Amino acid sequence: MADSGAPQETTALLGGDKNQTDDGVRGDKIRPNVSSSVTARASYRNSWHALRDLDDDVANEPNKERPGMPAKSYSVNADGTASYLSPLEMGRHELYEMVPFAAVFGMQKKERSLSQAFASFAGDLDAMEADQLEFKKSRTHLSDAELEKRRSHASLLLLDELEFDAVMVTSPLIIAVAMASMLQFLLGYNIGVMNAPASVVFPGHSSGSWALAVAAFAIGGPFGAMAAGKLADSQGRKGAFLIDMWIFLVGGLLQTLAIDMYMIIAARFIVGFGSGFCSVLVPIYLGELAPPNLRGMFGTLTQFALVIGILASDLVAFPFATEEKWRYLFSITPITSMLLLLFSPFLLESPRWLLGRDRSSRKARYIIKILRGLRYDHEVETEVSHFVSASQNQHCDGSCENDTVNSGVAFTEMLMTPKVRTLLISCLILQMGQQLCGINAVFYYSTSFFEGIIDNPLLGTTIVGAVNVVATYVALLLMDSCGRRTLILWSSGGMFMCCVVIVLSLLGYFQNIVALLAVNVYVSFFEIGLGPIPWLIVAEMFDAKYVTTAMAACSQLNWVCNFVVGFVFPYLNEYLGPYSFVPFAMVLALTFIFAALKLPETQGTTPEELMDQLVKKNSSVVYYNMNIQEAHNNPIDTEWKIAMEQLKEEDEESQ
What's residue 53's pLDDT? Predict the structure, then answer.
């Protein structure tokens, strides 16, 4: 067991031979070894705790602890600065620095792996410290079995604490997630809302005008995506949120009250602008509000909100896709926007944005306190240090107002670095494959596509929407067990085969019902690979400092390709007839070949890989008093125990 006094001063190398010590003594001053399989993290330079040079005798600081109380854990960096964080706080600091400030669908695996990696590292430190102290007491080392038991117990204790954030969700955070999900719902709803009423909105319109009305959504998207970053930096995340709500309200009202197709086209552009805006804003906003190990889950929730929005547009079309009631279809957007505006006072500003503008911001501290459910000021200050350090690590440079400039610099840096450039090109190619595979041709035009194939085309469209939701859940399960490259291969290969079956069905080689089944399988294959993976690998392939820039570039290209498909497919359907899916099959074949030959598998997602990354960064850091079991104990319980022992001693002396 660890002593409760000052820390020991001898040095040990993690992962080294248990018998290789200075004079046979193993102190609890522990330095990670780069060659070790055990890892550490030491980017604690920005901690709020007092940082002192080693010349100030920082090693003696723990002597100030009360008698009987466990010594505080701390770490000393190569530059001589020290940081007083508990093992749990060290782990949370690591998560903040390595998980990007973005809520991305499917990122839970990386979050869990990071927690496991740090818990394993800290468990090794704890076991090493116990072994050193045992040697000082008895001149014998702990056995391998005792070391493993200690290591395992400590790792599990810390892992439980690190994962507590995943169940500790406060009401302000729930409100933020719900409102962000509603914006994503509007994005999905407006993707599918033009599908059913093509023949009832201003009957007699040309196919070109309707195609332009559908594609105008994708024209506005990239402009909204560009504006979102700038406005989120200048007006704040909450301010940008309010702007987006007003954009949806104006666009939705224009579309609902339109007097001709030209007004529909203009309204679709505005709604598309708002959709592109929220596609950038929502992941950033939730990523900056949520603790690191909830960002993946919140990204998953918003993705489900999007696909449910597509399904809702199909369901609402059953009663309202008529010449008399089609305006009710479009009214869902302004009604939802007004409800969001009514609840907007409950939205909180991003603490990261506030701290970027003023590190002493009291408002940021208040928001952090209620977001995390904290009670004490020192807990809030520790959380502030996590935000500030992670923001610097992810190239915020202390001012979120410079994010746009930094994005441009980061993009140039990415292009100039060969390895990063290869990853960026891979991500951009996958974004092209995601849209040019024709998936939005299904969501935009499936009702007209199913005419002549089944008796009720709207029913076929609704089935596709429902399959899309179910397939999204299946994708979530598969992403925890399958490699990203593997899923892309299965997805593109399966979609290619579905395209072949669709074409053969339209040519009369199979019954019409086979075409309907093939479209649903096509959508299912999309959702397990080409749907989520092009976005997820951005968060997994790149360092956290590049994630936002890479996602911005991918978003722009994605919207451009979205427009191409939305505008061109009616002409493909008109001129190619049963061969309209052949161009999509060609794109899928090329995507499959690229994934098979060039696409790298996502690295750094397993605990072992993350441990290897962490140890290289922290080989010069020294850790003290890493006793996880004592740190895990409730301080109040410890105080009570000490007080009871003192009373017992006083009673014995008085007798």
Answer: 36
